[in-house]
Amino acid sequence: MQLHKRDVIDAATAILDNFGMADLTMRRLARELAVSPGALYWHFANKQELLGAVADRILQPALEPHVPPGWRDQIADGCHRLRDALLSHTDGAELVSASFAAGQSAAMTEIVTRLAAAAADAGVAGSDAELAARTVVYYVLGFTADEQSRLQWDAAGATLPDGQSVLTAEPSRRFAFGLTVLIEGLAAHGDSELLATARDDLTQRRLG
Amino acid sequence: MQLHKRDVIDAATAILDNFGMADLTMRRLARELAVSPGALYWHFANKQELLGAVADRILQPALEPHVPPGWRDQIADGCHRLRDALLSHTDGAELVSASFAAGQSAAMTEIVTRLAAAAADAGVAGSDAELAARTVVYYVLGFTADEQSRLQWDAAGATLPDGQSVLTAEPSRRFAFGLTVLIEGLAAHGDSELLATARDDLTQRRLG
DNA sequence: ACCTGAACACCGTTCAAGT
DNA sequence: ACCTGAACACCGTTCAAGT
């Protein structure tokens, strides 16, 4: 039976979920698929490209189109869905972070584009909108990688008697806090930017 | 001649600067020091611990005490010094990011503590101050790792005719932009928090 | 206390040769 | 077109034995 890209990504995702990133090696993956390591290099140029494909698979659920109106909810919603997608797979945040940094995730590019559009709606001027989007993404990836490593660390160790408040509720509240800080910052910046544009507009009209 | 921790960190930093993170391996480091690989494990428990020590060395210049008064300048200054330290070594941002995520950098812990104190001054309530500090740190690490990888990528390739505006001035402006968004967000949050505290205070006084 | 030598159990990637 | 076999050039870590 022929080996397809899909099978490879499926098997890679399974290894990730069951054993984590450290075990997601080309050789191990080949063994699981019962092919020689070299076979993988017919379908993927290198390991980075393969990891990028796994990242895109993980991010699929976060890619449904924006439902909410209003840039604040668009950013908040996008970020929550991103976090949820990352938390759905072992070491998800770490994997996606690495793929994003290596520029190997088309899904992350799409997410940044959407967040940039929302930032533009907030009043952030042209070229800064993508930067604003990246700033938000740095937060989500950093926070979630941190959260996930702690989560996985004491998933093996001490199971706290309270299985909810500290382990799931608190992180979500904390995540929302940082998100609010960013959104309020964008609102403040956007407002002053819109003011400046309006001022220039008036000046233009007076001179024209 | 006896091998000391200092010598190991020195040699590791030299490899990093001259060849980058991919070449910073235990075996290569041992070769450079003319010892066997096993010797390193007398001085460091594992590679992560050694990388943490290199991270702390890199961060040394960012650890001079806060000079400016006012929480805004304290955050802005701290972040600029952090970025400068990271950019002073090849793959500096990547190395410090990894060490921070692994909880192996005492210097990063110190930096977070200082930023948290500034956030508290901004009016961010107790336990959220550290989270605010981490949020800022996620931004600096994310932005700088990104900046540095692009910088190093086209340091080998196309040397743009303009050697200043896009390669150094623009990144600095862009870095400041994201920082302002975060600081304004903290200001907005801090103000509303202070208002709430004041309101509670009044209520207490009315009831008491 | 500090280090060597040698081993253990792996890596990612390439590429002639096969079908 | 797709894959095997085997090699190349490495890894991090451990640990008995030496000084």
UniProtKB/TrEMBL annotation, chains A, B:
Keywords recorded for this protein, A-Z: DNA-binding, Repressor, Transcription, Transcription regulation
Domain spans labelled HTH tetR-type: 2-62
InterPro entries attached to this UniProt entry: DNA-bd_HTH_TetR-type_CS, Homeodomain-like_sf, HTH-type_TetR-like_transc_reg, HTH_TetR, Repressor_TetR_C, Tet_transcr_reg_TetR, Tet_transcr_reg_TetR-rel_C_sf
One biological process term in Gene Ontology: negative regulation of DNA-templated transcription
Residue ranges flagged as DNA-binding region: 25-44
An example Gene Ontology molecular-function term: transcription cis-regulatory region binding
Keyword DNA-binding included in the entry's annotation: yes
PROSITE patterns associated with the record: HTH_TETR_1, HTH_TETR_2
Pfam families assigned: TetR_C_1 (PF02909), TetR_N (PF00440)
Name by which UniProt lists this protein: AcrR family transcriptional regulator
